[in-house]
Amino acid sequence: MTKKLNLSDISYSFSKYMYIVSIVLVFLVFTIMSPQFLSLYSLQNLALETAPMLLMSCGISFVIFTGGIDLGTGSIASCTCVITGLYVSQVGNSIILLMLVVGCVMGVINGILVSKLKLPSFIVTLCTTNFWNFVALRLSPSGSQIIPLNKRSMVNWATKDVIGFPVIFWIALAITALLYFIQQYTVFGKTILSVGANTRATRMAGVDTDKAQIAAFVICDACCALAGAFYAYKLKSAVPTVGLDLNLLSIAAVALGGASMVGGRGSILHTLVGVITITAVTSGLEIIGCNALWKDIIIGMILILAVCLNSDSKGRDLIIK
User: Fold this and answer.
1) What is the pTM of this model?
2) Which overall architecture, per CATH, does domain 24-310 show?
3) Is the pLDDT of residue 295 over 80?
């Protein structure tokens, strides 16, 4: 008997390769519209823009793999960007390690509220977002504050080119490789996907799902805190509003990478491709002189399309955990 073709199955099969198709189309379209899009200078700027976003997207990937969401990634980046920009001249480059600790603490708070108190991650992170935004604006009430010129030598190394690309890009790439190894080849990585696929069955199998969820938030918020520090190094200033649009972009990158927004499916490697695609879109729109309002609309449309293509066609629960 001939098996009847199912439209949803065809869509699912295509979605597995969407991240490849999307990046090829983006680079092709913008190269045709503006040949300078693939110039060395443009690619170096693309790498510089990609680095912090890559850290944020890889971090939030772990939470999304568990079936949760973190709406506070942008506010965490804003908070640590401000702290780094204000105090790097006093503390030095050890501020980066301090921001990692701060990010881990933020992750533990979110993780405990979600896993132990059984609160929806959507609500928890929406509330903590306001707190981190308050801290950022409280520390820098007058807006952006530049790092003193006589202290710039402490942060200039981050944007210097090594083998053609900035240092922070190579650091972000190294961290991405580490997270990919953890997700792909460790028991913890398999547990994260298992929790997203079926939390109850994973718990019944003897796995401590609470620890897995807490660890996912710790990784996410630590990566976002590091991204915020890198934004301060890149911009040479403390910017309390730097993360306003970053949450949407990081989620869009994960969705473009083929991750299921209800958890259980995804790859850090695919997220990397999604980040490059999203960053290429934003950079390309700026190169061709697109209005900033249209840029936000286009990113939103891309996110809707990515979620539609990656939506679960098997009838699982679609509520974010």
Assistant:
1) 0.88
2) Orthogonal Bundle (1.10)
3) no
